[in-house]
From TrEMBL:
Annotated Polar residues bias: 131-141
Location of the MADF domain: 10-105
Name of the protein in question: MADF domain-containing protein
InterPro entries hit by this protein: MADF-dom (IPR006578)
Organism lineage string: Eukaryota, Metazoa, Ecdysozoa, Arthropoda, Hexapoda
């Protein structure tokens, strides 16, 4: 039996409940019997085998890591250029995996830092070994170029790390505000979709057919009468009264009282 998006999201919701399966800091993370019990509970919740659930989670996590990496790198590129648009993933399960956001960020930051210019002897600036009593060297023996290199590159690394941190904070803020860009139509569409899912397939098809009929009816009225207003009910203008009475029942139905 194939995995649907709905079943996959249900799997992620249950996976999130058992922290010892994904959080190394959990005290039961290394207890094998606890993990086995956790997967068995998840399997019963989604109606699949425990082995199938494990494989599906592994596959979903691989995709999430790729998408997360794209989003972060895109944010850094946009921040560096001062223009452009941050990559916005359309993968259905991305938001569901946000509870793992902090777990994967540190690894990605390290990879991003490794992609910057190499900085030799990063910790040399704090090396106290140079302060130990030693024979006074002559001026020609002082390694002047390496000293300048350390002084020049250590601040560069700090600046790069700070920049990456700011970019990630900006990204997280942007992700939290994504929903605010949705208008009333987007929100109503989601609400209507949730209601449709509660109906049987036959009822759902009939309901969508009636909604389409209402929309077609409204568009027809606008074409026939440019003065027809945006009100969800027919205009009381006399010229529309007889027209409404002569319409077929399927067209009249779109002027019934709004559904609660």
């Amino acid at each position: 039996m194939e995995w649907t998006e709905e079943t996959a999201l249900k799997l992620i919701e249950n996976y999130k409940l058992y922290k010892h399966l994904w959080d190394p800091k959990d005290r039961e993370y290394f207890k094998k019997e606890k993990k086995v019990a956790g997967w068995n509970k998840i399997a019963r919740a989604v109606g699949k085998s425990a082995e199938s659930c494990k494989k599906k989670v592994a596959s979903l996590l691989a995709t999430y890591r790729k998408e997360r990496n794209k989003v972060i790198k895109s944010s850094i590129r946009v921040g560096a250029a001062g223009e452009g648009q941050v990559y916005s993933t359309r993968w259905f399960a991305y938001e569901a995996f946000q509870f793992l956001e902090e777990r994967y960020v540190p690894r990605m930051v390290k990879r991003l830092l490794n992609e910057t210019e190499e900085v030799p002897e990063i910790t040399a600036e704090n090396d106290d070994s140079e302060t130990l009593p030693t024979p006074q060297p002559t001026e020609s023996q002082i390694p002047e170029p390496p000293t300048k290199l350390r002084r020049r590159n250590a601040p560069d690394l700090q600046e790069a790390a700070l920049y990456v941190k700011e970019a990630i904070n900006t990204l997280n803020t942007a992700l939290q505000k994504i929903d605010s860009y949705e208008d009333d139509c987007d929100l109503y569409g989601k609400m209507l979709a949730n209601k449709l899912r509660r109906l049987s397939e036959t009822e759902r098809l009939q309901f969508m057919y009636e909604i389409d009929g209402m929309f077609i009816c409204r568009q027809s009225n606008r074409i026939q009468d440019p003065l027809y207003g945006p009100s969800p009910y027919p205009s009381p203008h006399p010229s529309h009264h007889s027209d409404t009475l002569n319409r077929p029942p399927s067209i009249k139905s779109c002027y019934s009282e709004p559904m609660m």
